Amino acid sequence: MSIRIVIDSTSDVTDEIIEKYNLKMIPLTVNFENESFLDKIELNSEEFFEKLSASEKLPTTTLVSPGAFVEAFSEILAEGDQVLGLFLASELSGTYDSARMAKDMIGSDDIYIIDTRSVCLGAFALILEAIELVEQNKTIEEIVEELEILKEKTVAVAALDTLKYLEKGGRLSKGQAVVGSLLNIKPIVEIKNGAISVIEKIRGKNKTIKWFDEWIEKNNYDLSDKTVLLFHGRAHQQLKQLREAIEDKYKIKNIIEQEIGAVIGTHSGPGVLGIGFLNK
Length: 280
Hints:
Blueprint: E1 3-8, H1 15-20, E2 24-26, E3 29-31, E4 36-38, H2 45-54, E5 60-62, H3 66-78, E6 82-87, H4 95-106, E7 111-115, H5 121-135, H6 140-150, E8 154-159, H7 164-168, H8 174-177, E9 185-192, E10 195-203, H9 208-218, E11 227-232, H10 236-246, E12 254-259, H11 262-268, E13 273-278
Parallel strand pairs: 1-2, 1-6, 6-7, 11-12
Antiparallel strand pairs: 3-4, 3-5, 8-9, 8-13, 9-10, 11-13
Helix pairs in contact: 3-4, 5-6, 9-10
């Protein structure tokens, strides 16, 4: 009996990692006015941002249904494997609750569900740790116990072009979203303990790279033994600049680059640049 890791599309795990470690990815749905698409299955990042720029109304997102999880979990159990599910924060979506409902409906003791209390970068960092623990042949109980402790140590911050997408999607209050776009102020948000909060406001996009550099230094993060995730949304050049600024300076062990998918892009908008890792 082996352990099969199940994730949702908001972790934005790369296709290479999904394929290499046989992860099962369950997509959320992105809804434009008259069309709905399964994230990463029917709509990739490039297609999404093209649609977003052409759309007058902001798209919405729909959680994974319990039925989709029942189908996925049942398929894995039928193959004689155990299910280890890691999903986005329950505070940000009902997807985790759908997975819990599916587990109850199936009634199997071989299904283990974890609320990552994060999304995107933070969830991805925890999933990488889950992969490593499975590779070490630990029991699923041991893995769950360790991940429940480690999820408190995820670090994920992102520089946004605007907060309008998070506010429109209900992930931030209107009050939090009043940041002063006329002054060209760029918000930095942190994803921690299931919440997205503004931790800094910087003026102008050009100062973003400097902010990340100073933030790593100020927090005294040791990245020499870590896999660092660098994410972006239509910000290839900025990502390249960020990598050049920090890779050698902090002797980073490994960097994984990824462009955000449609669900995360719906809430962050284009121009986002983020960094995440597990600070253990």
